[in-house]
């Protein structure tokens, strides 16, 4: 997605440890107009798949998923929660997700009320690196008996294992920008 | 906002300890069409205030804030983060917020790059109860030198102190549904 790649080149900052900071437009300050372009692109790439629910994970995926849902007939968006709070009770689908960024393992959960047989689920998230969060969300979709339409990712770090692992599972994975390297601070995209 | 009140009566569940669960449409599964109605209503109530940035806090505020921003000329949305992650560095505005729901105190932070003099900030959140989160966000706006246009809340628990405290500070606070009591599971709204 050319407009996204240009934005990453303009406003992304490469930090030590292969960290790509895009907090100017994606995951701290959010550019809602760009999110609509992203949502439109996801709708094109998943056209005809019958998506009727979008699943994401707190926090950075939520804004993108909500704006994208407008391009999928305003379908419901569910965000998986990372910790047990008093306001989420009842039966939950639960999986474990390791966050390398934060160095912790979370319980990730979705209420059984909102996912199940007959649902066609598109997973949306901002980043794909090692794939732990996405694997966790796929596991939740499987537990629920819903059908996985695929996964839409804004930025994939193509030099980490997540993308290959998940494509090898047969999942329709669409990443709008795949960064193949950031050596010496220069971002190179996959064609 | 009548359509919201009707939705709360239809899909809200009152739980022990004055907990109002609205996870069917607001803060776990999200109804994006309703969020657009909410955004439109915020735009009416804050018309002419010159809002050019929306500030919210992870996680439940993000979807509402992003959809609402479309009704404020696609202005940027910033979500305050609750913990220090490796991807947020540099200078930050920081404040402390106690979460009664989760029983912990968070550091809440916003990058100094994205708020400052010349900004007119609308704070948006899903719930207002004791007001701790909102007070924290107001503190961050003050630290930044930006001007506070006001705060838009989806559901205010009118029987808790937050709303009164914040209105007494002179803040333009607009809550789209104010619940005055939930005694015996019956939700009563303020007129």
UniProtKB/TrEMBL annotation, chains A, B:
Pfam family, one: Pribosyltran
Keyword Glycosyltransferase appears in the UniProt entry: yes
InterPro entries: PRTase-like, PRTase_dom, Pur/Pyrimidine_PRTase, Xanthine_PRibTrfase
Reactions accelerated catalytically: XMP + diphosphate = xanthine + 5-phospho-alpha-D-ribose 1-diphosphate
Molecular-function GO terms, alphabetical: xanthine phosphoribosyltransferase activity
Pathway the protein contributes to: Purine metabolism; XMP biosynthesis via salvage pathway; XMP from xanthine: step 1/1
Family: Belongs to the purine/pyrimidine phosphoribosyltransferase family. Xpt subfamily.
Purpose of the protein: Converts the preformed base xanthine, a product of nucleic acid breakdown, to xanthosine 5'-monophosphate (XMP), so it can be reused for RNA or DNA synthesis.
Name the UniProt record assigns to this protein: Xanthine phosphoribosyltransferase
Species this protein is from: Hominimerdicola aceti
